[in-house]
Design a protein that fits this description.
225 residues, mainly alpha, globular, 10 helices, 0% strand, 80% helix
């Protein structure tokens, strides 16, 4: 004879517990699914936001490049027009632009600024060709050492070309920008740096002396950078 223990309500209790577990499983599964779906959607949303931001940054950068390129092109065209307006022939303008390009090729400076400086330099008497190419390279070297823009340095040095003399206003501007021009000129002239100030005051320092001093001491600096 086999004895089977029976407890009143035992089967119903088991069924209830199993049903509860099943319900819990369904609820957990539903919550997990909801959590996964929500997380997935949020992930997709975040990716979309990142992509949108990246696209916006890229578009802004591209627009900046276009604007910068347009400004450079406009600067070059204006310089060419200025050269023609000053009476230079189209052949001279072509040579001047070649000089400008050769001066900044391989450096951090732009063609537009070199072309603008060229127009002022030629108007001041520097001849297109070897003389202009040399002057532009010296200007670029001085600008690099001074940490200045090519247009700024061109404006400083063009004053000496126009007057034919390097006076203390120009020499002082160079010295303030970290170029020891008084020492350079003193070494070149064989006198103490202090005497250069008096010589410049008297108008005895020519623009050629200044260019020679810069070329001797700074030659190739912009290209090496």
């Amino acid at each position: 004879m086999t004895l089977i223990p029976v407890a009143k309500g035992f089967q119903r209790a088991i069924a209830k517990e199993l049903g509860g577990s099943k319900g819990v499983g369904k609820t957990a599964g539903k919550e997990a699914g909801t959590s996964f779906t929500g997380g997935f959607k949020r992930g997709i949303g975040n990716v979309a936001k990142v992509a949108a931001v990246a696209a916006g940054v890229a578009a802004a950068a591209f627009g900046g490049v276009l604007a910068s390129g347009f400004q450079r092109l406009t600067g070059i065209e204006e310089a060419q027009a200025k050269l023609l307006g000053l009476g230079n022939t189209t052949e001279d303008v072509a040579l001047i632009m070649d000089n400008a390009l050769s001066a900044v090729r391989g450096t951090a400076f732009g063609m537009a600024d070199a072309a603008t400086i060229s127009a002022s330099a030629v108007a001041a008497g520097i001849k297109p060709g070897q003389d202009l190419a040399r002057y532009l390279k010296v200007t670029a070297d001085a600008a690099y050492i001074a940490g200045a823009g090519l247009d700024e340095m061109g404006s400083i040095l063009n004053k000496t070309v126009t007057s034919g003399k390097a006076q203390n206003d120009v020499l002082g501007q160079l010295a303030e920008r970290g170029i020891p021009i008084y020492q350079m000129l003193g070494k070149q002239a064989g006198v103490a740096a202090e005497e250069i100030f008096e010589l410049a005051k008297e108008g005895s320092i020519s623009s050629e002396m200044l260019i020679n001093a810069l070329e001797t001491n700074l030659g190739g600096a912009a290209l090496e950078s």
